[in-house]
Amino acid sequence: xISPFTGGCxxxxxxxxxxxxxxxxxxxxxxxxxxxxxxxxxxxxxVYIPAGxxxxxxxxxxxxxxxxxxxxxxxxGFCPECGSRVxxxxxxxxxxxxxxxxxxxxxxxxxxxxxxWTCDVQPWDPLDPTLPKYDKYPRGPAK
Length: 143
Fold this sequence. Notes:
The protein is mostly beta strands. The chain has a single domain (5-120), classed as Metal Binding Protein, Guanine Nucleotide Exchange Factor, Chain A (Beta Complex). Helix content is 5%, strand content 37%. The chain has one helix and ten strands; from the N terminus they run E-E-E-H-E-E-E-E-E-E-E. It has one helix spanning 33-39; strands at residues 5-8, 15-18, 26-30, 44-50, 54-58, 62-68, 72-78, 85-90, 96-100, 114-116. It has a four-stranded mixed beta sheet. A three-stranded antiparallel beta sheet has the order 1-2-5, with no helix packed on it. Strands 6-7-8 form a three-stranded antiparallel beta sheet, with no helix packed on it. The two termini are 26 Å apart. 29% of the residues are buried.
């Protein structure tokens, strides 16, 4: 795991940096329907970090808000130029946010630690048998 790390959108209009310590970084595969629709794939690989350790260093995100089962609303940031998703998981009751692993400058260090929202897994999406799995959010013991 690399810390600090940087990333951004496809066109380069948005850049960010994260100074979270490795112990503060959580890497998840989110299989929720929102992530499926947003990514065009079976899940979104997410690096979840403390919000206070994340900083936009170039550009200004545009945001879209949807309903969230866990926190009422779910705020996602994207590049207004190319449309790339840059942040997610921002909610009024949350102290963190997620960045998609695809937005990292070096996504090779992403190593999933758990799979969440497995209640929405598609039948053609094989799960990693070595990872803990949660029906929705990881609030209790893994399955």
